[in-house]
Amino acid sequence: MSIYSGPVFAMAQEQFNLVADYIGIESEHRDRLLYPKRAISVSIPLHTDDGQTKVFQGYRVQHHLTLGPTKGGTRFSPQLDVGEVAALAIWMSWKCALAGLPYGGAKGGVACDPNSLSVRELEAVSRRYMQEMIPFVGPNTDVMAPDMGTNEQVMAWFMDTYSMYKGHAINEIVTGKPVAIGGTAGRREATGRGVAHLVKRALESIQLDSSRSTAIVQGFGNVGSISAYILAREMGVKIVGLSDHTAAYYDPAGLPIDVIERYVAEKRNLAGWSNESAIDPSELLTRECDILIPAATEQVITATNASRLSCRILAEGANGPTTPDADAIIEERGDIFVLPDILCNSGGVIVSYFEWVQDLQRLFWTEKEVNDRLKDILNVTLDRVIRRARKDGISHRVAAMAIGIEKVREGKKLRGLFP
């Protein structure tokens, strides 16, 4: 029996078993590699602005601490459950190991809708969540970061809550916080910038001119909007499709990114921007484009729509957007260059690592230094994945996961099993 259940955890488990079969992990060693070291569940009581008392459920899952402290985001989402959190922590482990970061994976969050909370209520939920986590986190134990539904301000509240408990400022307890209190230049844009850089490398690999290429971005949040901005402004890619949880738009002639950015900054979502370009959100992923960036939630590319994808490059800005059944279809097709999630969206945790290092040293880098170091790590990692895939005749996803899993397995083997 296990406390971990649900479709997202089942997907992470299936992916792991596929890779474990490929690299020959014995059955008796698989559970130790797959199942998290620790899972924490807490209640988050809140006095609401209208005088009521509500209780939200909060979670934190730490997958392994073999290579260093755990690292991972904190998600505020109404549908959050411990199975989803565990899957995200597992993927973070392989992601960190693939990029060569001295971390295990973690993930956490609160099952709430942050958009329905006032600023005071959001601060109260954030501070109480961190307060409940204090016995289980620390700069050398577990370092939090933002994720879906959280941001720099939430990280600032986390840092302040932890620091007040300890009696002095501890900047390195979280990453993704404002620069004014120990954040790093370039962190907010890091995941989207990483996606765009790897798309550029993929375009070069399949010999497509970026200025003649088109892109669809599903999920116009932090990752998706920054990816679209860099693709359009710096690389000349035409953005033909966009969506968020409220609306989807497609126009083969191109969408005006500048206008849409201003609209979203004012309205906070895409709803109502246009009637002429509006389409059914379920159709967006299969519309024609050169670059498809799913940057929203898990399991949006499935066996149902994988055969109808009309892209040349699939750049996974989200975690777990493609199911194993869809992977099999895409691999059989052989006409899509896949940038798997643990590689494609690793820019965020890489620059979070830079932020943690800078906080520990009390020595900060320029934004150019951050971005140059980010690109160096992404280039090395992508090249390693491509070489492994070509050498063994496997998909980019299997190659990326195998590299990450092998590093964690080797670390556990060298450290042994404590009695």
Automatic annotation (TrEMBL):
Domain Glutamate/phenylalanine/leucine/valine/L-tryptophan dehydrogenase C-terminal: 184-416
Active site per the UniProt annotation: K107 (proton donor)
Residues at which substrate binds: K71, K95, S352
CDD domains the UniProt entry points to: NAD_bind_1_Glu_DH
Keyword Cytoplasm found: no
A Pfam match: ELFV_dehydrog
Marked site positions, Important for catalysis: D147
Gene Ontology terms describing biological process: L-glutamate catabolic process
UniProt binding sites for NAD(+): T191, N222
Family matches, as InterPro entries: Aminoacid_DH-like_N_sf (IPR046346), Glu/Leu/Phe/Val/Trp_DH (IPR006095), Glu/Leu/Phe/Val/Trp_DH_C (IPR006096), Glu/Leu/Phe/Val/Trp_DH_dimer (IPR006097), Glu/Leu/Phe/Val_DH_AS (IPR033524), Glu_DH (IPR014362), NAD(P)-bd_dom_sf (IPR036291), NAD_bind_Glu_DH (IPR033922)
GO MF annotation list: glutamate dehydrogenase (NAD+) activity; nucleotide binding
UniProt xrefs under SMART domains: ELFV_dehydrog
Keywords: NAD, Nucleotide-binding, Oxidoreductase
The UniProt record lists the keyword NAD: yes
Sequence similarity: Belongs to the Glu/Leu/Phe/Val dehydrogenases family.
Entry protein name: Glutamate dehydrogenase
